[in-house]
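Journal club prep — side note

Before the paper discussion, L.F. wants everyone to see what a predicted structure for a comparable chain looks like in token form. Sequence:
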Amino acid sequence: MPTYDPDDVVDELRRRFAALGRRRIAAMVVALLALIFLWSTWFTVQPEETGIVQRFGAVDRTVGPGLHFKFPDGIERVRLVPTARVLKEEFGFGTTGTGGGGRTQYANDRKSFKDVSLMLTGDLNVIDVQWIVQYRIEDPARYVFQVRESRQTIRDIAEAVMRRVVGNRLGSDVLTVGRVAVSTEVKVEMQKILSEYETGVRLVTVELQDVTPPDTVKPAFNEVNEARQDRERTINQAQEQANQQIPKARGEATRTVTEAEGYAVERVNRANGEATRFRAILAQYQRAPEVTRRRLYLEAMGSILPDAKALYIVDSDQKALLPMLRLESGQLPAASGQESGQAANAKGGK
């Protein structure tokens, strides 16, 4: 393998540059500088971005999506900020990408997130809170230059506010029914602080993803939850039973009262009718006592005798019982049949 002496290489380059000539070298340098100059005078802003043009370090203007021109580098510089996208910060967990079937893949190392997610509640219990913060950049110039490390500032504010809100509530409240209230309160407090810091950020949503007790106390917590669910189920069943029985009892009571009122009206009307009838009969009796007495007797007999199965009239002068014929029924009493048979036998004997 041949070896090269550095001095020989330098001498060879000098000979080649000398062969080109100074003018030609100068022309190549000028062309190269012109190319670099032209290349740095235009730039493209994507649809979801906003461009911030700085002239000698100071903000000169902001430009929207499209092709734009500027002074070359060293005079003007462009920063691209994603103002049309919804940015997201994750707390207590981390996503690594999207796997097959569109499922989100999470980081396997959960212990590294415990410093952020473990919080102390108002009743001195420890819970594991995972949440996300979504936001948009409203003012790109303020987002880039007003606050140093804007992304880390947002994370620090979110963690501080979440710890304060969770620390003012009971652990059971945060774990169950208070999740929406916690998210709303954190969003309002964060937006207030971000506006005071002039970060140029507008929050879209703050949402609790998963709120659980620490792994060491999960079995006991699950038992408590099961007991609470059993209590709620028993209360709901009792309430359902009450909702069925109370209207039923009220309906029966109303029906009984209505029947009693109807019976009372009927009895009063019947008593009034009987009293009116009695007064009418009394007036007739006072005018003709004997006739009225006999009429009443006959009317009573007329209502009693049709219900009697067998009637017998006993007379002191009559030696045998005298049956009463029920002509309307077409049947003869037993005694009447026997006497008819005896009469027939007597005729036959003659």
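L.F.'s comment for the group: The chain has ten helices and 13 strands. Keep this in mind when we get to the figures.
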